[in-house]
Each structure stands twice: as C-alpha cells, then as structure tokens.
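Same chain as my last thread, 274 residues:
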Amino acid sequence: MSVMTIKLDNQGLRSIISEFDLLFIDIWGVIHNGINLYQDSIDVLDRLEKEKKEYVLLTNAPRPNSTVIKFLKKMGLEKRKCEKVYTSGEAALNYLSKNLNKSKFFHIGPIRDFDLFKLFEKNKVNHINDSEFILCTGLFEEHESELEYYAKLLDNKKKIKMICTNPDLIVDRGDKREYCAGSVAKIFEKNGGQVDYFGKPYPLVYQQSIKLNNKKILCIGDNLNTDIKGANIQNFSSLFISGGIHRDEINNNFKDIFDKYNVNVDFIQSKLKW
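reply #2:
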C-alpha cells in the first residue's frame, strides 16, 4: 500500500467528498451483490444527491442500459438513481450499431444477453466458422464453469476478431463466484486472437457515459483489474472497496495485492459508506 493510501472506514466518504465534482460508482459488488441492494450504498447515493454531486453508476454489464435498469428497479432502486446507469454493453452496442451491424457474428454468452443484439439478431450465425466476428458477452449456461470448453471452441480461430462486452474475469452473485466474458477473452488472446474490449478499464466507456470536461473525478469499485486500473489509466482518484471481489486475497496486506495487480489506490473502505 502506498504512503498516500488513506483508509476511510472511520471517516467515511463524507470526509473527502468536497474534493470531487463527479463520481464513477461500480454497481455489482458496491451497490448490490447480484441479489440484494446494500443499504449503506443507497444512503451514499442519497447523500450525493443532497450534496448536488454528479455520479454515474458505471458497470461492466454486457447488456444495454435499459436491461440493467429494469433489473435494478426490480431490486428496489429508485427511478432517478437508475437514470444514472451506464453499461459496458451500451458502449459496445454504440460501436456495433455504427460499425458491424451488417456483419455475421457468433455469440458466446447466455440467452439473457440477447437484448444486446436484438436490432441485428438476423446476423447471428450458429457456427463459429461462418462468422465475421465473435461477440462474447459471457459464458454459455450449459458451460458456465468449464473454461476448457472455450479453449477448444476458440482453438485456431485467431483470424476472427472478438468483441468482448465485459472485461471482468469473475463476479460474485450472492455467495456464488462466476466467470465473466473477460475470462473467455483472455483464453482467446492466449490463442493469438485479437480482442476489442468495451467497459472498464478502457477509456471509451468513461467518455461515452458523461461529459468529463475538467472535473475532479473519483472512481469507486471493488475490482482492481477494472475499476481501479481504469481510474489509474484515466488519472482519476480511486476508492477501493476491499470487501468485494478481492476480499479473500487481501489478508490485511494491501501492499502485496496492489503490487500484484499493478495499481495505485488513493482510498480504501471495506464497504461503501457515507
């Protein structure tokens, strides 16, 4: 842990909020756990609104904004907060609609992600060898824990470009850990394939979600590979939520895990709290 890293479990987010104009807040692992909302995090959003602070709920979800908003509303998130959502799927959809809307593609991912390409679903092919690009939104439901399956599927397919709509490697849904699209994309890259990623930590998703101008920006998230690395790449400040996806790796030694992922962290909280 660098000398400048500050723990906020006692002081809370309120102790630093005056330093920032805009906050990018991760959703999965910070606002909810895939099943339930975290009340402390909802309280933070309420306080940000009272303080008139801008925020974006920026998530590596491989689905359009509208689909994630429906999901959050079912969880009980208020409409005005849902309007702050921006997804990696939305960023990918913008690109696909402009550049590849007539190209044949092979989809790797669950049926629930079909909303992403419903405007050009007619271009979806059933055999990977017939495709002009691979659209990876996740893992097939029948092979959701078998990375070896994807190594075989993608073998000798490096001439076909992959679009990955969620760079995350893993996610926790309640107490269950699941692979994400990023894990499949990494296998493809190891086989020599080219991958275009949409979502954190890549700059485009931040730029598309809101006008950045010259605002002082804080990124909040539980994923060092995406949330915190994205902040580092953009030269934004970062708040790492240590009770999320990396909780079993930490063992109270932050320096080692920050070095492992090659990131700099400005602030730490075990969970988001005002």
